[in-house]
Design a protein that fits this description.
The chain has about 180 residues and is an alpha+beta fold. The chain has one domain (about 1-185): Heat Shock Protein 90. It has helices at about 1-15, 30-45, 50-70, 115-125, 130-140, 155-160; strands spanning about 20-25, 75, 85-95, 100-110, 165-170, 175-185. Strands 1, 2, 3, 4, 5 and 6 form a six-stranded antiparallel β-sheet that branches. The model has no long low-confidence stretch (mean pLDDT about 90).
Amino acid sequence: MLAQEQYEFRSFLRDKGILFCYSGYLTEDILTGIGEAIQKKLELEQASRQTSRSLFSVFVEQVQNIIRYSAESEILEGADSQTNELRYGVLSVGREGGKYVVACCNLIRTEDTSRLEESLKHIQSLDRAALISLYKKTLKSGRPEGSKGAGVGFIDIARHATQGFTYDFMKIDENFSYFCLEAYV
């Protein structure tokens, strides 16, 4: 039964065009390892240099969002910094209709969904020149309140997702929602 279930899972992923799938706790080391595997796969597929760079940039930003913001986390005993946290998420990279798809999903606090959706809608509404302008403006204005980075992650994803991106939220309960973002290169 075990082999059959796992084979059916594998077949499901292949039927969906998934080249790589990871579900679990993510760290910078895992990010690096997965990134190397994806780059090698792109070389084997002879993807253009621009496609490879764009896909890799989107992948890194998406995984860093999980590492920094997933609400599903564990802190190592005696930890006093972010480097001692493990955050859980799901990542997949695949091909769909001639384009690459990078999807990342993780739990977020339900109270953050409105703010996040407003930001993502705004970013989706911008053309390339406006995205570049917003990117530069955001970098100059410093780290946003509550951010663990420069605040340009979703802007950078939009800049490199040459075929756009979609997102969705599913409320789990009063405290948590499930957030998914798919970016197309």
